[in-house]
Amino acid sequence: MENPETEIETVIEMLTEGDEHQQATALDQYFTEDAAFIHPFYRVRGHPESRESIQKVYQWCQLIYPNVAVEIHSTALDEEHLKLYVTMSHTFAFWFLLFHSGPVVLTTVLNLQKDSLKDPNKPLYYITQQEDFYQTSEFVKFVVPRFGDLFVISAQLLATWFCMATVCVCWPFIRTTSGVNSKVKGQGGTAVVDDDNDNDDDDDDAKLLDN
């Protein structure tokens, strides 16, 4: 890729919506031979033939939910650390669940390798690792398609309510503990030694000895 921020959308579409030939082309052109792939449910370690393993994962995903529509929301290139951040959503439908489709939002982090040997003015970028990040309420849709996200959101709200209630009940203890910690920090200063006074004392001692 000459411009990862603009070209990555085409690469993702080839991998997720393309046929076997398009997937292989995208992997051969834009991924290194030992590229790694990390997903909440899948993991391909980097090795000389890892691109073929990554393609098998994408083919499996197409088998489970063949109708996938991907939409790229934003891309950001970290040139210093050679990372490309892609926020996207894809709508999938399981073939064994009629009349169901689930939109899932994720952030993909792509580690890049920069190649400037052919043309230093137009370096090429290759993907060395793809890592997909999902919120819990998003990736649970793969496991429990219809009500999984509602269950997770309800559990998160319940946990938040429990935190707030616990703080209200334990507030006197928390306030006392915070006050003690503040006092300890206040007494933990470092002493400043006055070198001038020490030198004066040493001079006075020397005069007494001379007398």
From TrEMBL:
Domain SigF-like NTF2-like, residue spans: 1-167
Residue stretches of biased makeup (Acidic residues): 193-205
Alphabetically ordered keywords of this record: Membrane, Transmembrane, Transmembrane helix
Keyword Transmembrane attributed: yes
Region (Disordered) location: 181-211
UniProt name for this protein: SigF-like NTF2-like domain-containing protein
Lineage: Eukaryota, Fungi, Dikarya, Ascomycota, Pezizomycotina
Keyword Transmembrane: yes
Organism: Aspergillus nanangensis
Gene3D superfamilies in alphabetical order: 3.10.450.50
TM segment ranges: 92-112, 150-174
